[in-house]
Each structure stands twice: as structure tokens, then as C-alpha cells.
Amino acid sequence: MKNTLTGCSVEESMRLLGGRWRLLLVSYLLDGPKRFSDLRRDMPAISQRMLTLDLRALEDAGLLRRTVYPTSPIKVEYALTEDGERMRPVVEVMREFGLWLKARPPGQPKVKA
Amino acid sequence: MKNTLTGCSVEESMRLLGGRWRLLLVSYLLDGPKRFSDLRRDMPAISQRMLTLDLRALEDAGLLRRTVYPTSPIKVEYALTEDGERMRPVVEVMREFGLWLKARPPGQPKVKA
After folding, report:
1. What is the ipTM metric for this complex?
2. Which of A38, A53, B48, B56 could join A34 in a cystine, given CB atoms 3.0 to 4.6 angstroms apart?
3. DSSP secondary structure letter of residue B7
4. What are the tens digits of pLDDT across the range B47-105?
5. How many CB atoms are located within 10 Å of the residue B107 CB?
6. Inter-chain contact A27–B14, Cβ cutoff 8 Å?
7. CB contact under 8 A, A16 and B101
């Protein structure tokens, strides 16, 4: 039972955060609000369409707020909500695991996509 | 610079663990060794082919060991390696975040795939 509960909670998290880029995106937003162009620069490998979809999914989940400033040209800013800040420990643990993966001595099995 | 390092470590983790099912799979293996059929039962929504690919990716990364017992019929068991145990805190944080997501009061934004 515990196992089932554990399992489906992990699944719920991964449904939202399991995409290749979402937690990376969140890691940049944890530093403060960003514009779309900032995020494009931070993550040049992600397509514009995918970035848009990922931002929208986080916004729909209430973890991110999109603010449009009526300047000329219009400025659009993305910031984590208070709920979104709850992803900080998730990003931290992924960062630590990634550092460990990369620090393994040569000859260790390699990560494939 | 810190940001770049943080970013690419998160990316390294997500490259390995970011699929929809991999951390869920790991969460079951953290309970002990499993046979392929056990995992199929634990995760009925994943296809046989995808489960095979996910197991192989974790094996190639040195986080999982596949053992073939020469019984009749042959028994194949999957177990986390010592390195694989390092994914425990990752699963824990995802489980906690998932529990929080599911416990949000009704009317809160919903998670979409």
C-alpha cells in the first residue's frame, strides 16, 4: 500500500516535471524572474515551441506566473509562484545527483540519452 | 558560472532520469530486486518495449544490475547497484513533491501530461 502510494506520487511528480527540460527551466527561474529571451539564451538547445509548452504547463499547474508589462515593446516576464518555490528541493537533489554522475571516474558507465 | 554549472548538472540528471517512467521504476527497485514480470505488474501503463529500454539505460549507466539465473524456466532479476542506491534521495524528493501536488485543495490548478 505504502508502495503504491509512493509509486503514484512519484508518477504525479514526473508527469509534471519529467520532461527533459522542465526542471532545467525551473532551475533558471529559481534565480529570479526571466524573460522568454533570457530563457532561450540559458537553454539554447530547447526549441521555441517546446519552451512555450513547458512554460505553459508550469503556469497551468500554478507553479509559474506570466506577467505582461504594457511597455513598448511589450515585456513578458516569467516568475515562479510561491507554490513554484516548492520545486527548489527537487532541483537541488537533481543538481547534486548530476554533479555526482559527472564526477564519476573515467571508465565508469556513461549516461546515454 | 555557478548557474551554468547548476544548470548542466540538472540537465545531466534529467537526461538519465527524466523519462516519464524511469524514477517510478527506480522507486519500485528501491524496495528490492524485481523480475521483469513484477515490474510489468507494478507499472501496467508502461509498454514492454519501453520498460526494456528504461532498464537497459539504467544498466548501461551502472545503476542497475541484471542477473540471469540458470533455472528452468530462466529467471532474470533486476537490482539496483550500490551506485543506484544514490537515486534514493531523488525518488524521495519526487515522492514528497507528488504528495504535495495531490494534496492541494480542489480548485487548484491541475497537472496535465
Report:
1. 0.86
2. A38
3. H
4. 999 999 999 999 999 999 999 999 999 999 999 999 999 999 999 999 999 999 999 87
5. 6
6. no
7. yes
